[in-house]
What we know:
By secondary structure, this protein is of the alpha+beta class. The protein has helices spanning 16-23, 38-47, 74-77; strands at residues 4-9, 27-32, 55-60, 68-73, 86-90. It contains three helices and five strands. It is globular.
Amino acid sequence: MSTAVHVSSGHDGLQEHVLAGLRDRALTAVILMGVARLDSLVGQALAAGVDPDTPVAIIESGSTPRQRTVRTVLRDASGSAVCAPATIVIGELAGYDLSGPP
Length: 102
């Protein structure tokens, strides 16, 4: 289970400490404004040794009537048809559906 959450902008890629946390599954990364760089972010994570089966959730138009969540794994996330605005979540927590009552 992830023990930390790191929130960052998707404009500058993933920092080394974020990649290290994703590699050892200790961290869930929440990336804002990263849809335009999704392919690059996924490639960076895979090249850094992050498990290709790491869960990914992409929440499009969050908190609006048009909200849509795409769930996938890291190796398949590049092909996700999503539009901005969206939040990208990479890590174990992305595998849980937390949208409703327990």
